[in-house]
């Protein structure tokens, strides 16, 4: 009778948790706040304006994520993450990265659509769904790519300046995170910690360089199709770099607390996969947007 409730399988049945419901509620609040923020300039809901609602919901999401991941870490320490469970966690991370790839496909698609067909034609439809006019894309691009210089667009970046430096920084960070991973596999905790320190510093340096680059752009986000496609693609990647840096910083603090072992370290492994994904996406961005689409660089 003592063994009637013993666990005789490798799977983990999670304990009842409030976080899925709480996350859904805060995600709903965040969405309502974002819609109110974008669609209205006055008013709000329950006396709160759109930005306030958005940030309340977003703060709630951050709190929920912290608490939920805390519980997952506790499950790992209790031994609930068996080899079978870890395998399924890896499958989940692979699916998540695949979904992120689709996001970037959209930004690349937008960029190549306008760059390969700079003189294409767009249809403008009225609210009654009837076409009311035709606007040639070459009015926005001058019929060429990169677009003809204008008040909103002066020139592209020189790919062999700061963009190349940022590429080397990110590639070096991929090397240091691999160093940290191999150090962990060999039970070298000190080497792992230093590898993570280097990776986090390099990730932060990349972000600083990209902010500096944005501040010296010879084009704007609004008012021009090149700026819109450039900033959406590179900015979305920059957001991933920032998230990945935070991800690795959390792994660094956990490593310093002795959380990872050579046999069980899925949290760090997921962060390393995510970081390599960020590296690969940047190589495509650098090759396609900075180099292939460079045209005549701006003289800064």
Please tell me about this protein's structure.
The radius of gyration is 24 Å and the shape is globular. It has 2 domains: 7-80, Helix Hairpins; 101-118 and 153-292, Up-down Bundle (Four Helix Bundle (Hemerythrin (Met), subunit A)), CATH 1.20.120. The protein contains 8 helices and 2 strands, in the order αααββααααα. With 300 residues, the protein is mostly helical. Residues 122-134 have low confidence and may be disordered.
Summarize, please:
This protein is mainly alpha-helical.
Q: What labels describe this entry?
A:
Four Helix Bundle (Hemerythrin (Met), subunit A); globular; 66% helix; Helix Hairpins; two-stranded antiparallel ribbon; 2 strands
The Cα radius of gyration reads 24 Å
- The averaged pLDDT comes out at 85
In CATH terms, what is the architecture of the largest domain?
Up-down Bundle
Biggest sheet, spatial arrangement of strands:
1-2
- Uncertain residue ranges: 122-134
SSE-based structural type = mainly alpha
> What number of structural domains do the residues give?
2
Number of strands: 2
What are the SSEs and their pairings?
Layout: H1 19-39, H2 50-77, H3 83-116, E1 121-125, E2 131-136, H4 138-141, H5 162-185, H6 189-215, H7 225-256, H8 266-292
Antiparallel strand pairs: 1-2
Helix pairs in contact: 1-2, 3-7, 3-8, 5-6, 5-8, 6-7, 7-8
